[in-house]
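User: Quick sanity check before I run a bigger batch. Here is a single chain. Can you write out its predicted 3D structure?
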Amino acid sequence: MLDPDSIQKNWDFPKAHLAKHAFQDIIEKGVARNYSTRPNESHHGPIRKYYLRQTNRKDMPEQILQLDHRSLVSEFIRSRLDHDDEERLKRMLDRRVLEDQENELLDDNMFSGHVYLGSPQLPITIADVEKTFTSCPFQSFRKKLTHFLNEFLPLCDIPIPGGRSWFVVPQEDKLREFRYLKVNYESCVDWKVATDYLRCNPNFHGRERYDCALIRTVDHHNNEKLTFVRFQLMFEYHIGERRAVDKGLRFIRLRARPAALSEIIPLRSIIRGALLVPDFANDGDYFLCNYTDGDIFLRSQTFLS
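Assistant: Done. Predicted structure follows.
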């Protein structure tokens, strides 16, 4: 007789059911040496933990399915929370960078005129400019801006606010920084209009970018000359509250020259008539009434750009 303890089970033999599907399985999946059942074994880990830690060993399929469903719902909620945290962190860290990129995409349109400013930032006071920008070019920024305006305004026939002879920039006045500039110019090669895209951005895709430009200016003897510059800050500054109100209401304010500066013009240079309404609160100032007809309205848009 054989000793039952000496008999060991060995399941390594062909099964009767194997022959029925062996040929088709080889056609679909290849021979047995080309695949293994091991890769998916790790997927049973969570189910094994459910069985060991959260079931009572009775009616296990129903309990495991319920636990697996809860786990899937928890993972979905966790993924949504993680995504929300990532978006909040992105808005906190890269808010200005994203605004610059979006504004540049929005500003990538055709425009008329010579220059176009894009990527506007929040307004900032003159005092805050001197505190925020601590590099050498911004030392005495308010003083530099005051001298520039008092020289530039008379050359452009722009009246100094309040009728004063010298304008002092208040510290509480605000300016708006721009970080994107488009410049239209006539090419010296083919005389066609070309466009340059320039940036003055402390964080352009994670790096500083301060572009350069060729400008036309005058020397001390009032002779025209060309020179190269590097941008440090591009900004827009409105002189006086009255100018800001005019822009908000889209008024076109004109200032009459003194009679001593009157000029002779050829009659052929006249385009059409215009209706000017005096500003009774400021002697010598006029408003263009550009709503009398469609033609003057369209022509006046160039003064608003």
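The chain has a mean pLDDT of 79.

User: Great, the batch can go ahead then.
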